[in-house]
Amino acid sequence: MFPWVLTKDAKAVELEVLSAYLEMFPKGDSGFVPAVFGWASDYFGGRYRDYQAVDASYHDEEHTMQGALCMARLLRGRHHAGDEPRLTEHMLQLGILAILLHDSGYLKKRDDTEGTGAKYTVTHVSRSADFSAELLGDKGYNSTDIRAVQNMILCTGINANLAAIPFQSELERVVGYSLGTSDLLGQMAAEDYVEKLPVLFEEFAEAARYTEDPKQFILTYNSPADLVQRTPAFWEGFVKPKLEHDFKGVYQYLNKPYPSGTNDYVRHVEANIDRLRKALVAVLV
């Protein structure tokens, strides 16, 4: 089993990610993870340029920490499995940047005083890619690296056409799929995932007021209870096939031991879904 880490504590997550990083690359840059987690602390805390602190209630800093922790563990599992193409330290760094930036599109400028960042739910992936280009440009990254981070972030779109993403290498694709996988599993495996579903609905409801596209998935939910009731089917009919087929089963690198051991993340998601099913049955009885 993975050690328990309090994801509300960004420093605790940083230390776990750093441990995974140095386990993969013992002679690697030990200052990289603290530096980029510091950047994330700045932009989530309203200390970067003219951006406010994050005010989305579900897609907050902890949500990003959940994904970052999962992704570090997944990539460590893949690295130890020795699969090709082999993970490089540089691509690991870009992957960490991508997961830390993948929901930066929920940030608002200081003069944006209407609503919360949740209103950008429909456009947050493209906004995250744009924000990433801004921040990484400031930090001196070249266009190839910025494009790699953006491509990885695009994997997190709910209806992303993965085949259309212009990955620059197969390794970049693998890390992008690892990010998309970790974004889903990190949040759905959380101990309070069930309790936070009404919070997620409130984000959807706010976003619905800012879209004119009748086809947006956020418009299909009409209440917190509706979201809760449909979440088991979302897991079975959407997330599991996406993990297995779209993201090529990279979630299996979280199996301990690899390849046939227990997958803590899937186990915790299944426990959350079972809680939901039992609660729904109790309501109907």
Indicate the topology.
Blueprint: H1 10-24, H2 32-44, H3 61-81, H4 89-101, H5 124-138, H6 143-154, H7 170-188, H8 193-208, H9 224-246, E1 255-256, E2 262-263, H10 264-284
Antiparallel strand pairs: 1-2
Question: How do you describe this structure in short?
Answer:
The chain has 285 residues and is mostly helical. The protein is 59% helix and 1% strand. It has one domain (10-284): 3'5'-cyclic nucleotide phosphodiesterase, catalytic domain (Catalytic domain of cyclic nucleotide phosphodiesterase 4b2b).
Q: Could you characterize what this model shows?
A:
The protein contains 10 helices and 2 strands; from the N terminus they run αααααααααββα. Helices cover 59% and strands 1% of the residues. The mean pLDDT is 96. By secondary structure, it is mainly α. Helix 8 crosses helix 9 (224-246) and helix 9 (224-246) packs antiparallel against helix 10. The protein has a two-stranded antiparallel sheet.
Keywords, please?
285 residues; mainly alpha; Catalytic domain of cyclic nucleotide phosphodiesterase 4b2b; two-stranded antiparallel sheet; 10 helices
Give the spatial strand order of the biggest sheet.
Answer: 1-2
Helix proportion of residues, in percent? 55-70%
Unreliable runs = none
What does the largest sheet look like? 2 strands, antiparallel
